[in-house]
Amino acid sequence: KYDGPEYNTLRTLKDKHVVPCIQQYYKTPLLINEGKMQWLFDHDGRRYLDMFGGIVTVSVGHCHPKVCEAARKQMEKLWHTTNIYMHPNLYTYAEKLTSKLPGDLKVVYFLNSGSEANDLALLLARAYTQNYDIISFRNCYHGMSPYVMGVTALSTWRFNFPVMHGFHHTMNPDVYKGLWGGKLCRDSPSQTTRDCNCLGGKCQASDNYYNQLEEIFKYSLPRGKVAGIIAESIQGVGGTVQFPKGFLKKAFHLVRTNGGLCISDEVQTGFGRTGEHFWGFEMHDVIPDIVTLAKGIGNGFPLSAVITTPKIAETLGHALHFNTYGGNPVATAVGMSVLEVIEEEKLQQNCKDVGTYLINELEKLRDEFEWVGDVRGKGLMIGVELVADKETRDPFPAKYFVDLMEDCKNMGLLLGRGGLNGNVIRIKPPMCITKEDAGFTVSVLRRALLNHEERRI
Ligand code: PMP
Q: Could you tell me the pTM of the whole model?
């Protein structure tokens, strides 16, 4: 039962005391009161299927009982920072977490947010290589601190002041909307990302994007040297954009041969969400030098991590580096229980089964509606790009998108929004959803698309 202040009182408090960049979805923003697994409940007790996992943070389910119990037990015992004393949680969790990573990725630094983790990853790459320049992909999102804002290459998330220099944004190998690939592809013109050969093997478009990366080395980098490259394994905020098969492997190789480290941002793609693999980078057949984790790692609890090799980690011994809350006993207890739940409830397999089913069902919508341009993603990391017209692929107008989201909410379905033009539906639910939930999602979306059709007539 909701026992907080009245809705309108809160709206007034929000307008008066909260910074304006905290924007909410929906014309009448939801006042949420409770969460249970894949469900959210508002102040009136209305239930919603949360297909956005509270912005991808909720991995094993809202208020999962095992995770709650782990947090509660630890809270009653000790919350204090563990960075100036020893505490068992940090070390046992570090061992368990790194056992999930391949190769030499065995040393971890715990922090509290994705931006912090990426900040540290960049610092590590620069300190280790003694090079300065960092490459990222256009349309990427790596966080909001002044440091990583320079890496993030979505203009909608950039403020009008100089960010730190030394960041280079290479062309994003987007085979749906990019300059090469998709219907403009010389080899196999395709209508959607999934039909595109680029995702299945070699293609000219992929090579063209790779050439663009080479050009950065040729034209922009002093002595052609680089500190590192950072990549999401599937771009999240940018609208679930996937790399062509083999692209990232070649890109990582190029960076390494020019002295740089390879950083995989697994903030959204980690912990089994993509189904086939536990980590998103595995689908690209690469082993990065540094991996950053946040969001799903703590099922929404503030926790993030940077994982690297012992050799690279040594660099951090050159000076003092401290994070007050990173790896505190409560966060690490939560992290440990999240890993246990993923294993016990076979959530990676669930992502694969339910995700594949959902993608196949969403493709039917793509075939039914003129506005559903592309359905893409892997496991439970899905994007549905809405377009004004399938031929031009121009973005679906924002005002219609807002109406569609509103319709879905009114029918009990919460979805995410992404892409530079805000025209991609992002589906990244708690990993415990069922096939019935997937079916419900598709039927609500179908109804909302029909409503849009009727409104236009
Ligand atoms: N990396 C990626 C891929 C993200 O999606 C985000 C958050 N959307 C971040 C980093 C930044 O995480 P945080 O908001 O916790 O700083």
A: 0.96
